[in-house]
Amino acid sequence: MRKFWTFFRERPLNILLLAIPLVLYVKYAHWGSSWVLIFSALGVVPLAGLIGEATEALASRTGARVGGLLNATLGNAAELIITIIAIKEGLLELVKASITGSIIGNLLLVMGMAMVLGGVKHGEQRFDRRQASNNSILLTLAVLAMLVPSLINASIPPTDRHHVETLSLALAGVMITLYALGILYGLRSGPDPLAAPSTHQPGKELSVGTALIILALSTFGVAWMSELLVEAVEPVVIQWGVSEFFLGVILIPIVGNVAEHLVAVQVAGRNQMDLSVEIAVASSLQIALFVAPVLVFVSLLFGQHLKLIFHPFELLAIGASVGTVVLVSFDGTSNWLEGAALLTVYVIFGMAFLLL
Questions:
Q1: Coil, strand or helix: which one is 303?
Q2: Which of 127, 198, 248, 354 is the most exposed place for a label (fewest CB within 10 A)?
Q3: Of 240, 241, 246, 239, the residue nearest 356 (C-alpha)
């Protein structure tokens, strides 16, 4: 019994595991799609956290190189599962919106909250300016890779737009190659700029067997909850009067990454701004350079054709988010006012996406 309460006391988000039986109840009691969406979304949150914890435990046991590879590969596992389920259901606009939402959410919402909390508690904080510059280059390349197909699609006659699918596949291959090169660089020379830094706590290590069991069960649970969540999207869009686009930009990224988001804010509060910035930026890079191109290829397995063609406002939001973060991080320092500015930009885009 003591271990049971410790499980919840040390990891408060795990209380949301109670949402898993609740989602089954509301589904079969016919409470409506809104309740199914709410409880399935809440159920994903602690499962995503457990995936992260199991990955960290395995990474700490396998050494820095393999550990970095595990973090780079499984850093956004929950969101990858949700978007694959959405592709299977043919909700391609929801998938692309979630890609956009993850990138701007990590750069604006997470980094903004971290800078506000850290700045209020510790005043001006410092982080590695050189690493921030490297990340800025990679973020800019990611934006260009997402921008080019959209511009080409808008510039050529409709009869030739089938070529954009080939271009999307080619660019997806290039982006995955860049991601792999980043991992290789990290394995050979130091920290991987594309992998979220480890936040593992040595005093709470799991055995390899326990970590593998938690990873397997949590992954299965995320897939199950994601299936229920995606099934509820279309009825909820009608009931709530919001767009599928808005749910993809705001809801799915927060649900899939909330545990990681909280860690980034917590370490900023402990004056570890280097780690906080790396978590936020590395997660955005993983989405842009790994998750998005992988989904392009995965869509073919389901007879869908996910193209890297984004709405002009999505491109504006991503480009502006990257540009704002580059300006804020250029000097290697942060304060609560800069964090407030990032949050303000996120709120502006959120209101715009609600109306779009």
A1: coil
A2: 354
A3: 246
Q: Report the distance separating Cα 104 and Cα 318, nearest Å.
A: 6
292 vs 327: CA distance, rounded Å: 25
* 8 Å CB contact between 165 and 305: yes
- Helices 336-355 + 92-104 axis angle, to 10: 160
CA 82 to chain centre: 11
Find tokens 């917590």 and name the residue.
266
Q: How far apart are CA 121 and CA 124, in angstroms?
A: 9
Residue 238: partners with Cβ closer than 8 Å, 6 or more residues away: none
Residues contacting residue 307 through CB under 8 Å, at least 6 positions apart? 149, 153, 164, 165, 168, 296
pTM, 2 dp: 0.85
DSSP secondary structure string, 198-241? P---GGGPPPHHHHHHHHHHHHHHHHHHHHHHHHHHHHHHHHH-
Q: Would you state the pLDDT for residue 8?
A: 54
